[in-house]
Amino acid sequence: MTDVRTDEIAATDESFRVRALDAASSLAYELTVGARTTVGANLVRLTLTSPELRHFGVGGPLLDLRVKLIIPAPGSTRDLFAALRPDAVAELSAFDGWYRDWLQVDTAERGWMRTYSIRAWRGAGHPGNLGPDPELDIDMVLHLEEPVVPGSGVAARWAAAAQVGDTITMLGPNARLVGPEYGGIEFRPGTARRLLLAGDETALPAICAILETLPAGFTGHALIEVPHAEDEQRVLSRSDVEVTWLARGDAPHGTLLDPAVRALIQERPELIREHSAEPAAGTSTGEFEEVDIDSTILWETTESNGPFYAWLAGEAGVITTLRRHLVKELGVDRHQVSFMGYWRKGRAEG
Asked: Using omega within 30 degrees of 0 as the cis cutoff, is the peptide bond preceding 147 cis?
């Protein structure tokens, strides 16, 4: 008997139904809080576990993999992600239109979608696991910006109140259908082996996860600005990337990170030498395009084809300034710099 492709059937039968595991690149995993650990003065680590996580992954290192947590609306019991559950069977259209459909539901019922990086991942059977199922750690910043911006702080408040046994939905990659090129991974050094990683506490989990994944042979510097010295974490890496923690106290974001990056490059110009040139006074080098961070998301990721690669993430205003310094003022090739505005001061989190 001749096999008929799924898309050919779907083209002639709109009611054709398939398993989410066979058609959805992202799945909605129902996770349980297995442990809650205070990490420093401003973060809480939630260990999330579920047998469904056996379907999770990208077939390679997770690096700075981004996932979506659905912060539940109080009192809401409606499952808006039923079609994306690992055991679901639905029409193909359900796997493409879920986000549009979710946006049509009132916030009071749908809750809030927030993006996080996975701090650590442990497959089933790992000796450090709480039980037999796979599990992952997510570090969440508890600090709430004052004054509170409407729509902001919902994830921090949920994390502050979360207890062992609570459940939450996470949208993440379906290991059956995606590989290491999955779009949720932004750290792509390509041929580079000299790195500059810089970010604030919101980027801390991603930077630490990257460092703990890197093999030997990578060098460079990771600069992480945190609210308090107690927020520093132990990072185990096979690489030779040096980690510097910057505790800013009550000062604004970027107060220490921006000058630290500038001082590092001035003291260690060999970090970017092949991709920079001394500009003449009043001139700028390198391709550069300003981004209006109040109307557009600051986000551009690249894969390096040279020896140097910079990965910058955190508050959009701070990251914009650092990007401008590297690309416009120092002439670093734009294609050697990935930059991400994880959040914007004065605006609701995303």
From this structure: yes
User: What number is the average pLDDT over the span 83-98?
Assistant: 91
What's residue 303's pLDDT? 92
In this prediction, residue 296 has a pLDDT band, given cuts at 50, 70 and 90, of low
> Which domains, ranges and CATH numbers included, belong to the chain?
20-173 (2.40.30.10), 194-343 (3.40.50.80)
CA distance 337 to 325: 11
Q: Please, what sign has the CA dihedral across residues 295, 339, 117, 19? A: positive
The token pair at 298 is 């600051």
pLDDT of residue 151: 52
Q: Which residues lie closer than 8 Å to 73 by C-beta, 6 or more apart? A: 107, 108, 109, 110, 111, 112
SS3 annotation, the chain: CCCCCHHHHHHHCCCCEEEHHHHCCEEEEEEEEEEEEEECCCEEEEEEECHHHHHECCCCCCCCCEEEEEECCCCCCCCCCHHHCCCCEEECHHHHCHHHHHHCCCHHHHCEEEEEECCEEECCCCCCCCCCCCEEEEEEECCCCCCCCCCCCHHHHHHHHCCCCCEEEEEEEECCCCCCCCCCCCCCCCCCCEEEEEECCCCHHHHHHHHHHCCCCCEEEEEEEECCHHHCCCCCCCCEEEEEEEECCCCCCCCCHHHHHHHHHHHCHHHCHHHCCCCCCCCCCCCCCCCCCCCCCCEECCCCCCCEEEEEEEEHHHHHHHHHHHHHHCCCCHHHEEEEEEECCCCCCC
